[in-house]
Design brief:
Number of helices: 13
CATH topology of the largest domain: Rossmann fold
CATH superfamily of the largest domain: P-loop containing nucleotide triphosphate hydrolases
Helix content: 40-55%
Strand content: 5-15%
Number of strands: 8
Bound molecules: guanosine-5'-diphosphate, magnesium ion
Distance between the termini: 11 Å
CATH architecture of the largest domain: 3-Layer(aba) Sandwich
Number of domains: 2
Strand order of the largest sheet: 3-2-4-1-5-6-7-8
CATH class of the largest domain: Alpha Beta
Largest sheet: 8 strands, mixed
Amino acid sequence: MGIFDKFKNLFQKEEKEELNRYDIGLEKTRKEFTSKLNLLTLKYNRINEEYYEELEDILIQADIGVNTVIRFIDRLKDRVKKENILNASDLKEIIVDEMFIIYVQNQIIVNKINYNKDGPTVILFVGVNGVGKTTTIGKLAYQMALQEKKVLLVAGDTFRAGAVEQLIEWGKRVNCDVLYKLDADPASVIYDGLEKAKREDYDVVLIDTAGRLQNKTNLMNELDKINKVIGKIIPNAPHETLLVIDATTGQNGISQAKSFQEITNITGIVLTKLDGTAKGGIVLAIKDSVGIPVKYVGLGEQKEDLRVFDIEKYIYGLFKEMDVEK
Ligand SMILES: Nc1nc2c(ncn2[C@@H]2O[C@H](COP(=O)(O)OP(=O)(O)O)[C@@H](O)[C@H]2O)c(=O)[nH]1
Ligand SMILES: [Mg+2]
């Protein structure tokens, strides 16, 4: 059974709505990517060196990242040799298959939240300004509230004007409590938030922070301080530190991931605004170059527009319009 049949079977069991969200969110990337691949296949009947070069360009333009692309092409060439593939049209399905392999890399990918069994689960959100931290917190709170979890939002971004109000708005929209304090430093707000969460038996605490990467030492000190406060009130917390990255910033997002990884322990990535880019290949590049799994993807601005990242749905979303000869 080919990989497309495998995906098709898989999705018959899925709710249509769920898959639609990926479809819509990946539309821009898919249009670029699959139409280019289809054209490439038409242009080159037979696989040759020029074919590979053009394929390389297409992948790099989709923001898959140069190193990842080079590895990918090498693997593809190996397979072409081993499996005696001559025609470009036979390669399409293998390209999809190899995308999958590059992401999975024989690892078991954990994209579930590491819930705390004895007390509130603390999730810290970090990332530079404007990437979608506050929005993601709102969306995730909405999902968790639907699962009947008692969720507290903590307004730890005390720097940006309007940041607290924005979180309060989200709290109203998704019907979750928000802890905030005006004119306080982040550590003090977080302290109060976690005390409240313990006292009042919250299941999950989502902590918003300010994202200032202009000065690495400052940010590192600030995150250290925040982590110390959190760990003091709830041992082993934070249970997750999610780095939020804006997919539309392309390779810049990769360097943000590398910088944050150097200063704090990132347990997962949220890739936002996938709906706003034709460069959705960044998902593969992040995993390949930073080694941190993408746990959630943002596929729009509404409360329903966050999804647990699913590599199969993602790849299906990218390639479903690609005609593969049976
Ligand atoms: N299209 C789209 N917009 C998003 C997504 N996530 C966030 N945004 C928008 O990005 C902007 C910045 O988001 P915000 O949460 O304030 O970023 P923060 O500074 O990191 O907290 C807002 O206008 C959001 O509506 C997404 O997945 N898709
Ligand atoms: Mg914010």
